[in-house]
Description:
By secondary structure, this protein is an alpha/beta fold. 60% of the residues lie in helices and 6% in strands. The protein has 21 helices and 7 strands. The chain has helices spanning 12-41, 53-78, 82-102, 118-131, 150-162, 166-192, 195-212, 217-241, 250-266, 268-293, 299-329, 360-374, 380-402, 415-439, 444-464, 466-469, 471-479, 499-510, 525-529, 549-560, 565-573; strands at 518-521, 533-534, 582-587, 592-599, 607-614, 624-629, 632-637. Strands 1, 2, 3, 4, 5, 6 and 7 form a 7-stranded mixed β-sheet that branches. A hairpin with a 7-residue loop joins strand 4 (592-599) and strand 5 (607-614). Helix 8 (217-241) packs antiparallel against helix 9, helix 8 (217-241) packs across helix 14 and helix 12 (360-374) packs across helix 14 (415-439). The longest helix is centred in the middle third of the chain and has 31 residues, at 299-329. It is globular, with a radius of gyration of 27 Å.
Amino acid sequence: MLADTPVAVAPLRRAVSTLVQFVCAALVAALVAAVGLFAFDRVQWPAFNSSNVTQAVTTVLQFAALAVLGLSIYLLRRRRWVTGARVLSWAALSGLVTATLGMPLAATRLYLHGISVDQEFRTQFLTRLTDSAALRDMNYADLPSFYPAGWFWIGGRVANVLGMDGWEAFKPYAIGSLAVAAVVALVLWSELVRSDLAVLAATATTLVVLAYGSPEPYGAVIAVLVAPALVLAWGGFLPAVRGGRVRQGWGAVVGTGLFLGLAATFYTLYLGIAAFAVTVMAVVAAYLARRAAGSWRAVLPVLVRLVVIAVIAMLVALIVWAPFVFDVLGGNPPSESGTATHYLPDAGARLPLPMFHMSLIGLLSLLGTVWLVGRASSSHRAQALGLGVIAVYLWYLASMASTAVGNTLLAFRLEVILLVLLAAAGAFAFVDFSRWISLATTENPRVRRVLVAVGALGALAFTQNIPQVLGGEITVAYTDTDGAGERADQRPAGAASYYAEVDDVLLSQLGGERDDHVVLTADTSFLAYYPYFGFQALTSHYANPLAEFSARAAAIEEWSELSSPDELLAAWEELPWRAPDAVVFRQGAEGYTLRLAEDVYPNDPNVRRYTVTFPKELFDDPRFAVTEVGPFVVVTATGESA
C-alpha cells in the first residue's frame, strides 16, 4: 500500500523558493482579481437574473481563461518557458475565478446570496472587524469572538485600509480571496506532482469549489486547499512507515500543521474533517509501520509526527482563538452548549454518492473513484485522497449516528470536500486512463488528440454552467437591498432602504460611535451594515455560547408583558448583560413588534419564528425618545427624568 514515488520534502533552499512562489502567486492572483473586478465595475451591466448578456460575457472570459490554462499545461508538459508558463497558469486560474464569480455579480454590490440568512451574519462579522481590529464577537458587546475570525479579520483590515464599509467590501474580498487561494493551491500541487498535472488538478478542484462551495467564501478558501494538503500530510507519515529511509517527512509535517492551523482560524468544521483525515492517516501509517517492523516501537515515529502536527496547529489556531479560550478559562464558561449543530437537512441524512449522478461532476467522480481503488497500492496520491474520502464518509456516518443523542456533525456541509477530493482523483484518472488508451491503440497521436479535445470540452461545459448552478444565490444578490438602500435589479427596495435614516436617528440621539451602543432589533441585517452591537443574535445557531441566547429571549418576552416604563427600566438595570441603548421595532396593529427565533430541532426547518409585541404605552415617558422611520419605530433611552 506504499507509494512508488513519495513526495520529496525540500531542503531549506527549496523551501525558501517555494515560499517565494506562494507570495508571488498570491500577488499575481490579487492583481488579476483587482483589475478584473475594477474593469467589470466600469461598465453598466444588466442584472444577471433578467438578461443573458452577463452570461454570454462570462462564457467568453471563461473560455479565454481555460485556453490560457491549456497553453500553460502544454508549455509545462514540453518544458518550454517554464517560469513564464507558471506565471501564466497563476494569472489564468485567478482570472477564471474572477470571471466566473465577478462577471455574473458585476451589476450588484452584494455577493452570492446577498444579505440573506447565513450571509447576513457573515457580513455582520466582516462589518465588525472592519470597524475594529479587536477580536470581538460579531454581535454581542463585551464578548470575545467565538467563530473563527481569520478570513473576516483579514478582510476587515483590507476594507479599513481601502476606506470601504464591510458590506461593500464583502464581494470583492470574497472573490479576491478565492482567486488567491486557488493559485496557492496550485503552487502547493506543483510541489507534490508534475507541474502540468498540478495545473490540471488545481483547475478541477477550483471549478468544483466555485460551483458548490463559493457561497461560503471563508470555507471555500480552505476547501480548495484540502486535497493537496492531505497529499502533503500522507507524505509526512511515509518516512515513519518506511523506517526513515525516505528523505522526506518533516517539511510535510510542518506544512500539515500550518494548514490545520490555518483551517482552525478560518472554518472550524473544515478543521474538524481535515484533522480527522490526518488522524485516520496516522492510524493507517501506524498499522503499516507495525506490520513492517514487527514491533510496536515502530509506531512511535508516527505518533511523534502526529503530535508535532497537532502542536503546530494549536499554536496557529490560538492567533484567533486565544481571547475566547482565555475568557472561558478565566471563569466565564459557556452557560449553554449552543445549537450550531442542530441542523439536519435531507442532504445530511444520507450518504452522498456523486459518482452515480448522471452529470459531468458525476462522471468525474466516477473516474476518480475507479482510480482511487485501482491505484490504492501503487500511488501515494491515491492513498492520500482515498483516505480523505474514507474520512468524509466516516464523518457522515458519525453525524447520522449522533442524531440519536440530539446533535449532528453538520456532515452535509462536507459534500463539497468530498467532491473536491473526487475531482482531484478524477483529474489524475483522466490523465492515466488517456495514457492507457493511447498505449492500447495503434493510432496514438489521433487518439490522444481526441481525448484531449473531449476533456477540454467537458471542462468548458462544466465551467460555463457554474453560474446556473449558482443561479439562486446570484438572484438573491440582485433582489436584496444593499447598504446604500438600493436593489441591483432596479426594482423597489425593501425595508432596508430606511436603514440609513434609522442610523441617523440613533447617532443623533445616542451620540458617540456606533460600537459604543447596543441595539435590540429583529431586523438584524441592519447590524450587518452598521457596526452597532446587538442585544440578540439572528438565531441561536449563530449566537456566541457565552451570550446566553435563551435567557435573553426569555427576558425580551418578559419585558413585553410589563405595564410601565419604570418596570422596564428597572428590568434593564438588573440585567446581567449590557442593556439595550435603543430598540428598533416594526410597526404592528397592537403595538411595537419584534420577530424572534427559537431552535426547534430535530424539525426541518430547525427554526421557528414568533412575534413579541410591546405596548406603545411602555415607552410613553420622557426617558424614551420614540421616532418613526418608514416601517420602523426607533426607541432610544434618553436618560432624562420622568
